[in-house]
């Protein structure tokens, strides 16, 4: 078959030189045109008459905005110390080499060119936001000293803050010194190096048994999607690759532990999915310790406290990965303090339903750095209670309560997050046990919803949708025919990889576990990458690591 095909190809090439010449000329011309236009693409000066839009950040929120913003309407400037976008859902894969780290990033300049967005990018960090004079101070991140001449100011008419968030250690002793985070590419590289170094050290004849046990105990703090995915990737790496190259003994000492403060992992997912994940981990030998807090991290030990009994224990570790909690960045905190009483939530930049920063008119906050202040349901209680379609016989039945939630979840995001707990909440607040919620019982229920669920989850999905919303808002600014609806989050479900080519998927309509969810996850993530180049690289990595193994060299 092979030789037959080759000979047919040879005959075709000999007989059709004009087609080949034509195709080569067209492709060559297209290629040259592309690179010629590229050469001058970023050189065009910003025209004076357009309003200036400054975007801080190059993460999910900012890149989604930039892909949709109309650069004919604004002089767009982007500021970020990172000249690339990180596709975070694949970051846990890079810690063990399932995907190469440079394949899950995209250059900001290339993305701008691909979308033909004539915007200026500055590799700098925003250090101060002066909303009274409409300017941002930025500093050169590559400078060696605190030279003030290395900072510059960017004036703006519109400002978008998409600065993301920092890791939250909850003031736990020793986390910065001895644990590793999993938020950036540098973190992923450091984790990979540490895993391999620990295995190499454990394999030395001079290493004692006790030391081997310590080196190969990997502790993951936080049972959210990031912690779960890292544990799953680490399990696969050890079982598929490292166990082949290191003495069987190393596998004997290996221990992977997830420590979670709540009563289960994947707390934001459906209960059944969390149960499935924990059972899967049990089968794979990954230990899950729930209702336990980490109280301190040392160079070689980690302290746990059982939330129920308050009993404290100390365990040796070879690596601690801190995968829980986020907090406000210092530059955002500084900006919030200038806004005084407009910013009452210390945990994030408060924005209104249209994502405008409270206390400003031309500054928007999107992604992990911001939180939407929802209109409290409690203040609407009287008008809600008077709606005849829900209140029957002086109260709400479970069916009318369900209908009420379904009808109002678009406007009141806190209802959206009651998720699968409706029955549980109804039962809890039906104190008279008459299958009917009276007004006072209903008030208590919505107070609970108001108090607990006031923020959207800090996910790429939320950030990307907010970026897209602000792009549309800015594109239509001043257009009286275009009314701006409040931002409505559309949850499209969440994936988490749980190991051995299995994943879980949770959405309002569909719940998936196993191989189908794994392929669904890969397809969904690949479709979200900006370039075909990244899609090709990642598909290749997934195929290669599956069939030929991951890299085990330390560099
Ligand atoms: C390992 C991991 C896996 C994840 N997996 C998922 C997932 O599967 N699904 C999901 O929905 N979410 C996931 N997330 C969450 C998701 O990545 C975040 O919610 C998302 O990145 C938030 O986007 P953002 O634009 O607000 O912030 P970021 O993406 O963090 O971007 C912040 C940007 O601000 C820039 N910046 C920082 N400081 C400054 C400064 N001083 N001046 C200028 N720029 C600055 C940064 O360089 C960066 O470009 C994951 C997160 C992690 C860490």
UniProtKB/TrEMBL annotation:
It is an enzyme of class 1 (oxidoreductase). Its main location: mitochondrion. GO terms for cellular component: mitochondrial inner membrane. Residues 417-452 form the EF-hand domain. It catalyses: a quinone + NADH + H(+) = a quinol + NAD(+); a ubiquinone + NADH + H(+) = a ubiquinol + NAD(+). It holds the Pfam family NDH2_C. This is NADH:ubiquinone reductase (non-electrogenic). It comes from Eutreptiella gymnastica.
């Amino acid at each position: 078959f092979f030789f037959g095909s080759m000979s047919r190809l040879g005959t075709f090439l000999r007989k059709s030189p004009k087609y080949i010449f034509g195709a080569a000329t067209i492709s060559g011309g297209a290629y040259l045109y592309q690179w010629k236009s590229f050469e001058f693409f970023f050189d065009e000066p910003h025209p004076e008459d357009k309003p200036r839009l400054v975007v801080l950040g190059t993460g999910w929120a900012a890149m989604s905005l930039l892909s949709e913003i109309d650069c004919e309407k604004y002089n767009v400037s982007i500021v970020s110390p990172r000249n690339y976008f990180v596709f975070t859902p694949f970051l846990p894969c890079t810690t063990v080499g399932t995907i190469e780290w440079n394949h899950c990033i995209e250059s900001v300049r290339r993305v701008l060119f691909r979308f033909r967005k004539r915007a200026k990018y500055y590799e700098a960090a925003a250090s101060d936001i002066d909303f009274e004079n409409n300017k941002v101070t930025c500093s050169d991140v590559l400078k060696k000293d605190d030279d003030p001449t290395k900072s510059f100011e960017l004036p703006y008419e519109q400002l978008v803050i998409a600065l993301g968030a920092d890791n939250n250690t909850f003031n736990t002793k020793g986390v910065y010194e001895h644990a590793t985070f999993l938020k950036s590419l540098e973190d992923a590289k450091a984790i990979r190096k540490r895993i391999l170094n620990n295995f190499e050290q454990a394999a030395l004849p001079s290493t004692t048994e006790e030391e081997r046990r310590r080196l190969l105990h990997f502790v993951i703090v936080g049972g959210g999607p990031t912690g779960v995915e890292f544990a799953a990737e680490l399990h696969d790496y050890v079982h598929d690759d490292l166990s082949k190259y290191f003495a069987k003994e190393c596998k004997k000492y290996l221990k992977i532990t997830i420590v979670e403060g709540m009563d289960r992992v994947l707390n934001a997912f459906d209960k059944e999915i969390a149960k499935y994940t924990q059972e899967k981990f049990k089968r794979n030998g990954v230990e899950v310790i729930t209702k336990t807090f980490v109280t301190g991290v040392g160079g070689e030990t980690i302290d746990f406290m059982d939330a129920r009994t308050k009993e404290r224990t100390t365990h040796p570790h070879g690596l601690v990965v801190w995968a829980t909690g986020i907090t406000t960045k210092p530059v955002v905190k500084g900006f919030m303090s200038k806004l005084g009483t407009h910013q009452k939530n210390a945990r994030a930049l408060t924005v209104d339903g249209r994502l405008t920063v409270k206390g400003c008119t031309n500054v928007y906050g999107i992604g992990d750095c911001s939180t939407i202040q929802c209109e409290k349901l409690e203040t609407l209680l009287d008008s809600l209670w008077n709606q005849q379609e829900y209140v029957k016989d002086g109260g709400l039945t479970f069916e009318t309560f369900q209908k009420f939630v379904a009808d109002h979840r678009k406007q009141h995001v806190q209802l959206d997050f009651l998720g699968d707990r409706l029955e549980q909440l109804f039962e809890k607040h039906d104190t008279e046990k008459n299958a009917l919620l009276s007004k006072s019982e209903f008030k208590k229920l919505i107070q609970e919803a108001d108090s607990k669920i006031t923020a959207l989850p800090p996910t790429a999905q939320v950030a990307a949708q907010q970026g897209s919303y602000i792009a549309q808002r800015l594109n239509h600014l001043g257009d009286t025919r275009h009314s701006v609806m409040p931002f409505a989050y559309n949850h499209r479900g969440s994936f988490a990889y749980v190991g051995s080519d299995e994943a879980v998927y949770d959405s309002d309509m569909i719940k998936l576990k196993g191989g189908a969810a794994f392929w669904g996850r890969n397809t969904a993530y690949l479709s979200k990458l900006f370039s075909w180049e990244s899609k090709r690289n990642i598909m290749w990595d997934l195929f290669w690591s599956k069939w030929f193994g991951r890299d085990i060299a330390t560099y």
